[in-house]
Specification:
The chain has 142 residues and is mainly alpha-helical. It has helices at 14-28, 49-55, 68-71, 89-99, 104-120, 124-133, and strands at residues 40-44, 65-67, 84-88. The chain has a three-stranded mixed beta sheet. Mean pLDDT is 85; it is low at 1-5.
């Protein structure tokens, strides 16, 4: 069951975002055969300066998430290295507010899926199908 945006009395904290991201991961993984089930998700308020420099991005609010493959290409798919995804709470909440009609859980699921797609180099159509099969309303995402 998706959590509606009316369920939030206060802005979700990092722990709430992690819970939503892990729930999304659990729902998405069965629909994408080529990925590891062992992915670590970390939530921070904003991307750090060093990562912004590596990504050649100036505005931290433009970054909803990154993955370990983006930050250090030498570690990408290294045997025994657990994939790690960072999601950024403040940009996610800003995006959610600006959209106005997107369920937060759907937005976070899409952010998680974008990191999966980037890390594993998956096809856009496969990812869209995974979102649909996991029960997310992708029409909300535009």
């Amino acid at each position: 069951m998706l959590v509606s945006d009316e369920a939030w009395g206060c802005a979700p904290d990092n722990r709430s975002i992690i819970e939503l991201a892990n729930r999304a991961l659990d729902r998405l993984i069965p629909h994408i055969s080529s990925i590891s089930k062992d992915i670590e998700i970390v939530v921070e308020d904003l991307v750090d300066e060093e990562s912004l420099e590596k990504l050649f991005i100036e505005d931290p609010y433009e970054v909803l998430g990154v993955n370990s493959g983006m930050l250090d290409s030498l570690e990408l798919h290294r045997v025994g290295v657990k994939p790690k995804f960072w999601l950024y709470r403040l940009p996610l909440l800003k995006c959610w507010i600006e959209a106005g009609d997107v369920v937060l859980e759907t937005l976070i699921a899409n952010a998680v899926l974008q990191e999966i797609r980037s890390y594993y180099r998956l096809d856009v159509d496969e990812c869209e199908t995974a979102l649909l099969n996991a029960g997310y309303d992708i029409k909300q995402l535009g």
